[in-house]
Write a structure and sequence with these properties.
The chain is mainly alpha-helical. Helix content is 62%, strand content 0%. The longest helix has 19 residues. The chain is globular and about 45 Å long.
Length: 158
């Protein structure tokens, strides 16, 4: 992370966590690609949307739109806007292909911010800054989404 922060920042002196430097760079990418999808969203909404994808994921488009209906800045928008946000997140972070298995695993509509440590740092910072975010997000999630959120948050706490 430190090497990447130094590469992105030009001069990284360690006064902030390297994850913060990388997330600042990522946020510029989020803003640009969101605008390409016709989404004029605040920084907070972009951060909460990416966090929702990292915490809960979605198995299909319907789950993606449902999760986004609990994201601040998207909950009061039309379904069309939430659908465009779901497409934006899918284009932003494509789901990783799972290796072939004898039994099918869970489907993934969208991927997550990588590496996992960066997604965990973002999730922790959003949950810390917005105490209402997590209860709202998890109020209507599937058991699989709740388990994923618990896993990400446990790693973030560690």
């Amino acid at each position: 992370m430190t090497a990447l922060a130094t590469l992105l920042d030009g001069y990284y002196n360690g006064t902030v966590p390297p994850e913060a430097v990388i997330l600042t760079h990522e946020e510029r990418y989020w803003r640009r690609t969101a605008m390409e999808h016709g989404l004029n969203l605040t920084r907070d909404t972009l951060r909460c949307g990416v966090t929702a994808a990292a915490l809960c994921g979605a198995a299909n488009q319907a789950q993606a739109v449902a999760i986004l209906s609990h994201v601040p800045g998207l909950h009061d928008r039309t379904e069309d806007v939430r659908l465009r946000a779901a497409y934006w997140l899918r284009d932003l972070y494509q789901p990783l292909a799972d290796p072939p298995r004898s039994e099918p695993g869970p489907e993934r509509y969208w991927g997550s911010l990588q590496p996992d440590l960066l997604a965990e740092h973002l999730a922790a910072s959003v949950v810390d800054a917005r105490p209402d975010f997590l209860p709202r997000l998890l109020s209507d999630c599937t058991p699989e989404q709740g388990q994923q959120a618990l896993t990400v948050l446990a790693r973030a706490a560690g």
